[in-house]
Design goal:
The chain is α/β, with parallel strands linked by helices. Helix content is 38%, strand content 15%.
Length: 343
């Protein structure tokens, strides 16, 4: 027998979508942005993508406040930079302990409530589209849950601990938006490249109790996030030699739209968010020097919020991360404007 308790049957995605339906205007925003983002990955648009926002979307009002600020700066850099806000509603935990995100705890100070969490995640992504005009990015921590948000998302990330999982790869192959595959925490790029290959091809598999058929996702691509060596030390993989090697791996295979996003936090920064501006600028200089790297690197993933740093779950500081430390708004705005000047 299983050593777990089944508390209640949760609403299926169709029911949740009926409770929180999109308007025609929201659908138009999402469709327009979907085309624009695909054009960047296809090489038809050379704007730099910034997938930027809090480590975890812990406070819906603060997240919307932050994204509204992004809306203002997006207008200033619209010819050079294309912003996709991060609204990460699931938080993977290395040991399983700690705050697991809005999906688990709509109120971080209360016990988990998965039904309220499902509603809260859809509500927040809808608010972003309606109130800011942005369709956003989320991490696919639980592939079965993707259907609750699949009509809203502009971008999906598969994390370093999930990238080797077969279900993540197969579900990614059926998505109609770019999916970024992170290199695993141990750094083996072959694992990431195998995930991209799997996601770019069609499959037959079981999904939510159905026999599902996917056509393949040509927009599956690499996210370079650094790695941990055998001594547990953070090691970056955004340097020139790393990106040249990635370009060679792509060239040796048969891939649609080779692309990479550089995650400027995590092991690339040693989880020091203040290093993120430096990393972005270093990579932009590499793009100037090497045409293959320029063609490959489509943008950056940046962890940023209203306030610098991080705090405990009960810290009480508005707009400050309760998971990994983030870059504060003043530094973020300055970074975006400086990157636009470099392009």
């Amino acid at each position: 027998m299983m050593n777990m308790v089944f508390e209640r049957k949760l609403a299926i995605p169709m029911e949740v979508k009926e409770m929180y339906p999109m308007t025609a205007e929201m659908e138009m925003i999402i469709q327009k942005r979907a085309v624009e983002i695909k054009h960047i990955f296809e090489g038809k648009d050379d704007r730099l993508i910034l997938i930027i926002g809090p480590c975890s979307a812990d406070n819906p009002d603060a997240v919307i406040d932050y994204i509204l600020r992004l809306r203002d700066v997006q207008e200033k850099v619209k010819n050079e930079i294309y912003i996709i806000p991060r609204i990460y509603t699931n938080k993977p935990r290395t040991t399983g302990a700690g705050y697991k995100g809005l999906l688990h705890q709509p109120n971080p100070n209360e016990k988990p409530d998965m039904f309220k969490g499902i509603l809260a995640t859809r509500s927040l992504h809808m608010r972003a589209v309606k109130e800011t005009g942005f369709s956003c990015a989320d991490e696919m921590l639980y592939p079965e849950n993707h259907k609750y948000l699949d009509d809203l998302l502009a971008y999906v990330a598969v994390g370093a601990r999930s990238v080797e999982n077969q279900e993540h790869r197969l579900v990614s192959s059926g998505l109609d938006c770019p999916v970024g595959m992170k290199n695993p925490t141990a750094g083996d790029l072959s694992v990431m490249m195998n995930a991209i290959t799997a996601a770019q091809h069609g499959h037959t598999f079981i999904y939510r109790g159905w026999e599902a058929h996917s056509a393949g996702n040509p927009y599956a691509h690499a996210i370079m996030r650094g790695y941990m060596n055998k001594h547990g030390q953070s090691m970056p993989n955004y340097h020139y030699e790393d990106l040249a090697h990635l370009a060679a791996l792509y060239a040796a295979g048969d891939f649609s739209f080779p692309a990479a996003i550089i995650d400027t936090n995590h092991a690339n920064s040693g989880k020091n968010p203040l290093e993120q501006p430096r990393i972005c600028k270093e990579v932009l200089n590499m793009r100037r020097y090497n045409h293959d790297i320029k063609k490959l690197v489509k943008g950056f993933m940046i962890e940023s919020y209203i306030e610098d740093g991080a705090q405990p779950v009960d810290g009480g500081c508005y707009g400050k991360s309760i998971t990994d430390p983030c870059l504060g708004w003043e530094k973020t705005e300055r970074l975006i404007l400086e990157l636009a000047e470099m392009l």
